[in-house]
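Predict the assembly for these three chains.
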Amino acid sequence: MGLSELLGTYGQNYLDGLLTTWGMTAVSFVFVMALAVLVTVMRVSPLAPLRAAGDLYVQVFRNIPGVALLIIIAYALPSLRVVLEWRTCVIVTTILLGSAFGSENFMSGINTISVGQIEAARSLGLTFGQILRRVVIPQALRTTVLPMTNLLIAVMLTTALGSQVPLDPQELTGVVSYVNTRSTGGILAFLISALGYALTAFVISFVGNRVDRRVRILR
Amino acid sequence: MSQRTTEGSRSGETPVIELRHVEKHFGDLHVLRDVSLSVHRGEVVVVIGPSGSGKSTMCRAINRLETIDSGEILIEGEPLPQEGRELARMRAELGMVFQQFNLFSHMSVLDNVTLGPRDVLGLSREEAESRAMELLARVGVAEQAHKVPAQLSGGQQQRAAIARSLAMRPKAMMFDEPTSALDPEMINEVLDVMVELARGGMTMVVVTHEMSFARRVADRVVFMADGQIMEEGAPDAFFDHPRTQRARDFLDSIRGH
Amino acid sequence: MSARAVSAPSVRDALFEAPGPRMRRKIVVGTAVSALLVALGLAVVVRQFYVTGQLDARYWSFFLEWTTWRFLAQGFVGTLEVALTAGAIALVLGLVLMLGRTSGVRPLSAVCRVVTDFFRGVPSLLLIYFFFLVVPQYGVKMPAFWMLTLPVALAAAGVLAEVFRAGVNAVPKGQVEAALSLGLSPARTMFKIVLPQAVRYVIPSLIAQLVVVVKDTTVAYVVSYPDLMQNARVLITSYDALVSMYLVIALIYILINYAINKASVYVAQRTGVKIIR
């Protein structure tokens, strides 16, 4: 199948696929960040049960294979009377996995700040809230631009799990499987989706690098 | 200067900083043993001693960067608050200069100096900046005001850190080994600023290994070893006629005898 | 100074200063409340298992039979074979891609860069569909093992190329200058001086990347290759025990990957190098 024939027959599928991938990535990433902040707050809190729960959360979701988690959410949860839409299943899976890594990024961002700077802020008479707002959070955010850029790409790649459940419309990976089970799309059928991912990743990391260069903290 | 330091002459006045029978352990290590010390207004107290003697810990305990197990710490006669806004307010009145400078690495030097005045004292940006520029000029880093700390030499960073503390108009300043992390050629530029400050009447507690500074500027030298204050006295008396064997050994070791 | 080093503080601990009496009371209350909340959450989950009958013996008893574990162990061997083979291929290919990229030969460097970025920028599932659905269209018949191992290896190779490059960049510039000034050719400098040191820097990171490889192998069922996950699916149909089986399998994967991460951290600490991710 040539390119024009492929696009003529399945062009709409690819376009929908790209938009679905982008859409799920964007929605997931917003929640990934929110949940990562929450889990990180738990992990640095002085309350031992919250610390333990936060640490356990991260260990579970950074070590579980994405497919295993998706299958549990999509196929095991209904047996426990928790039924989610297919699309929601994929997004929830992505959020759980992504937020564990996001929290790890925040933790290492926090750890690049020297304890001395926190003591200096304390000595100036800044309150706990002021120290967080003026010293800890700005530095943690600025040092995590690159890791979070990579995480955004990882979140996009994780949404390919959507090919393992019947989505409508399908995302980019699902489209390849769809096209190739109907016609012999050949390498082109694969390349269109692959380029959709690779070019998006390229743009994300280009923007991320630009932002990082602007906000990077000299040490 | 020296007649102001004799203990008897000021028994009626409340010390700016007072430690009473302070004890502290780090696990099995007894780092402060029954430490009592009074620092009066305008007095410069230099604390010396071998490393691990507890002198840094004592200095840091004064604004509760280290907690103590028992004993009392009083600031102008008031017990040091243990937490919350009261503690923050008290800290704002005590300056602290660290061995590692500890400038905020994501802010310009100017922002480092205006942060406290603006966020803690509630000064407007203009007020805070004019105060900051004046202080930065005084310590000789006004030209570096818009650079970030990493672009400054160690000596410049430490002088900026002193300006940051001074911007709070503190009642007293603590220096925790302020020159120990500096290259030799930068030590004097920092000491000069500290000498100026002492001459201007600032109440100071200085933990240092710079004996010439101690001799030149101190009203009183405190010698610590093994978590205890072994002896204290006027600098000339201490350096020329140390009373304890520990002090003699220490002075010999740093003189390289 | 040395006294302070006793309690070498991390920022995580330094963020909250040593509590005063009021704060200590709040922490005690907060600890109790949060412990209660965590327990409550667990209770809700367990209750949901109970009321839906998922705690019934028939869903769990087959875990007491050793045939179950033997079958799962066979699957685990399958997982291991794919993961180790893919890891080995990725190691070689990643190294080649890095060498090409840093070779200084313009076209070669550009090609290696594009290939590296491509494999890092596409999902491994898509690569699996390529080998499973696209390659056969060109008349190439592949066993399931390779339809799984090759895409997993390619995805990992892209990442490893970057890990190796970070390792090479971590070798002090002076080493290269010293070698070149001794008259070593650039190639000899790379192989004799830079690479041996770079490899030492990246060993913990390479171990950590094995986690990604193990995770990627779990889609083996797409190509019907009998790995741990696929064998679990077989057991699910024969015992009709979906929830319990998937939870146990997930736990096994979590423990495997946790162990690999721990090993990587252990090696990193012993050799005093940082893990590059």
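Chain A has one domain: 3-215. Residues 3-215 of chain A form a domain with the MetI-like fold fold (CATH 1.10.3720.10).
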